[in-house]
Amino acid sequence: MGLKRTKVSLLTVCFMLYCFASGGIFGLESMVSAAGPGLCVLILVGLIIFWAYPYSFICAELGSAIPEEGGFYIWIRRAMGPFWGFIGGWWMFLSILLDTSVYLVLAVGYIDGVAGPLSPLEKWLISFAIILFCTAINIKGIDAFGFSSGVFSVICFFPVVALIVLGLVHWHYSPFTPFMAPNVWGQDGGIAVAMSIGIWFFSGYEAIFTMSGEVEQPERLIPRGLLIVVPIICISYVLPIIAGVAGVGQWDQWSADQGLSFVQIGTQMGGRVLGGILLFSAIISNVALYNSYLGSNARIPFAMSLDNLCPRFFTKLHPKYGTPYITILLGAAVASLLCLNSFTTVLEADVFLFLATLIFVFISGLILRIKEPDMPRPFKIPVGTKGFAVMVVILIAIALYTMFSSGIDYAEIGFIGLATGPVVYVIVKKLCGDKNHPEGPVINS
After folding, report:
1. Contact 361/206 with Cβ under 8 angstroms?
2. CA atoms 346, 349, 355, 359: torsion sign
3. DSSP readout, 162-178?
4. Which of 241, 182, 281 minimizes the C-alpha distance to 31?
5. Residue 387 and residue 381: Cα distance in Å, rounded?
6. Which helix (H) or strand (E) holds 43?
7. 3-class DSSP state for residue 215?
8. Are 281 and 156 in contact (CB under 8 A)?
């Protein structure tokens, strides 16, 4: 028995994509105060045109052409070879390990704000309960994952609609004035912060493709889902900011943690009931993101182990659900160890590693356009190779600017993370590469 393929609807795929690529609006507040209302909206619109759509389209093209478990790792390996495939997979795996732990910290932080102050033990117990819940969902497979994504999506999206409507009703301020914050272009200016936040929110389009081997007709369903979900995500980011500034103002006090958050903005415009709903949505949005990336990240070492680049036991599948439960448990165990720490420093490496991997994804798409022009591509971006190359150049330029715009200290931390890739490759190649593994996953009976 191999990976269990599940028949899912287009709606379920859309829910899954929303949880991967959005998970709500909480965290965008700091982008407003960093850049200023007008510039913030302009950056978001610019990223929609020059980042979100080209990025998601490249992932859709690659995912439709190579609909295999492991997603972007398989794409990079096919285009650039096993070494670079491993490097990209390792960087993303490491990035998401850090990232998922942060989602737990944020979820518990919101709970602490309501029920706190919580002791470290209480925080860890709440985090561990979330980990157990999401681990069970992921081990049960796409059916349970898709259903939970639908519930999470509705909970996360409803407050977005409420904020937009209330902002229009309570319109008192210009949502674009002032255009930019003071010192936005300085050394510690807000343009770099705003770009980093915007890039981070317009990300995750590649993640669902790591599960392609468990979905029937992924080459058709997932690209179609992206075409539906990406516009919804774009609108759900821009309109709440416009509505919030128009209804409440105080843009310079906006912040996701120590300032005017969407929870407080909603409370001012809609009362304590809406504020409570928004708070619950903020908690669920982080749980949804943790749940999504716990499952997605588990597929990376699973796919690499099939290529003798990770220990063989990572290929073990659950005897009932047919999911790579060993790697799911691995991600859960790491999160349970990291969920009480502060991640200000490692988050910088997290973004750096993530964008470095995306650069490999973009280059892989171009290489395969050149090397394998006749490869069947159920979804193909309607541009020629030269047009594709222009898209890739723009995407890489945006990624590099974001990676290096926060200063040399930020870049140094990121390079440390990047340097682990070749070291780990040499180690796993020596330990696992000489073994003659049979093809296919192992079923643990």
Report:
1. yes
2. negative
3. HHHHHHHHT--S-TT-S
4. 241
5. 9
6. helix 37-47
7. strand
8. yes
How far is 210 from 15, CA to CA, in rounded Å? 16
Cα 205 from Cα 227, distance rounded (Å): 11
Q: Which one, of 358, 362, 360, 354, lies nearest residue 388 by Cα?
A: 362
**Tens-digit pLDDT string for the chain (445 aa):** 467 788 889 999 999 999 888 877 888 888 898 899 999 999 999 999 999 999 999 999 999 999 998 999 999 999 999 999 999 999 999 888 888 887 888 788 778 777 768 888 888 899 999 999 999 999 998 889 889 989 988 888 888 888 899 998 989 889 998 898 887 776 556 888 888 888 888 988 998 899 988 888 998 999 999 999 999 999 999 999 999 999 998 898 888 766 788 888 888 898 888 888 888 888 888 898 889 999 899 999 999 998 888 888 888 888 888 889 999 999 999 888 877 665 455 566 677 888 999 999 999 999 999 999 999 999 999 999 999 999 999 999 999 988 887 666 667 777 888 899 999 999 988 888 655 444 455 444 3
Contact criterion met (CB below 8 Å) for 21 and 203 = yes
302 with 440: CB under 8 angstroms?
A: no
Measured CA to CA in angstroms, residue 329 lies from 148, 325, 393 at distances of: 19, 6, 38
- d(CA 221, CA 31) in angstroms, rounded, equals 33
Distances in whole angstroms, Cα of residue 226 to Cα of each of 105, 174, 259: 29, 33, 33
Return the DSSP state at 314.
G
Q: Residue 17's Cα: distance from chain center in Å?
A: 10
- With tokens 């819940």, the residue in question is 133
Kindly state the DSSP code that residue 71 receives in the 8-state scheme: T
CA R_g for the chain: 21
DSSP alpha helices (H): ranges in 170-217?
190-201
Q: Decide: 217 and 61 in contact? Cβ < 8 Å.
A: no
Q: Which residue has the tokens 């049979």?
A: 438
Calpha distance 124→119 (Å, rounded)? 9
Closest CA to 25 of 205, 237, 200, 234: 237
